[in-house]
What we know:
Largest sheet: 6 strands, mixed
Structural class: alpha/beta
CATH architecture of the domain at 1-72 and 188-264: 3-Layer(aba) Sandwich
Helix content: 25-40%
Order of helices and strands: EEEHEEHEHHHEHEHEEHHHH
Radius of gyration: 19 Å
CATH superfamily of the domain at 1-72 and 188-264: P-loop containing nucleotide triphosphate hydrolases
Shape: globular
Oligomer: single chain
Amino acid sequence: MSTIEIKNLHFSYHSGEEILKGMDFMIDQRSTAIIGQNGAGKTTFVKLLKGLLKPTQGEIFLNGKTIKDLTVAKLAEHIGMVFQNPNDQIFKNVVLDEVMFGPLQIGMNKDKANEKAKQALELVGLSDHINANPYDLGLSRRKLVAIASILAMDTEVIIFDEPTIAQDYAGKERIKDIIRKLRDEGKTVITIIHDMNFVADVFERAVVFAGGRVVLDDTTKNVFSQKEILKEAYLEQPDVMKLCHELGLNEKFLNVDEFVRNAY
């Protein structure tokens, strides 16, 4: 299980205009959702984790070691990221080649990369499309190809950027199962996302960004119970928790399953 420690993290694209303003927190074994309105610094933060940007001040530590001297390629051996838009990630003409590309780049031999790619495609439900052109698939399936390409790399940390985009109910349920499986395997799973119901269903911890700072960091239930702080961060509670407030229930529930089991 990997840990990521963020110490006094600052970042500016332009002088005098800070995007991140001194963040201090640790990402541990819990599946973690980073939430906040557009412009809160979420995407900038994960780019710093991936080494695509460098902090203007402060450091990020992976398993106790600073990442500041690691190249993007070296970090890719440890941290995989599924992009929000799969069209920004996919560039091969065959699904299997696309999913094998990442493993090959981090040093897997061809046989192992092929095995990992096929396992990942089975997990996302695309085993029947290994020879397809990704761009002959719809957006929802291209997103699953992008997810498979990162799963196949078998990194210790996996970041999902808006994993539910273009997914129907069945697609969302599949991605929930994938995230739970990764967590059970000891992977560190992080998402940046606007879908609060999805967070409530699958993530153990939520970290709220607002104005370049961390304003809440706790279990998902405790974070979503803070209605007024969420409102100040321009976020809404999950639907079931809103219902709990409207019904005047003393105990607040995260999702339908919790509500049905415990409300009455």
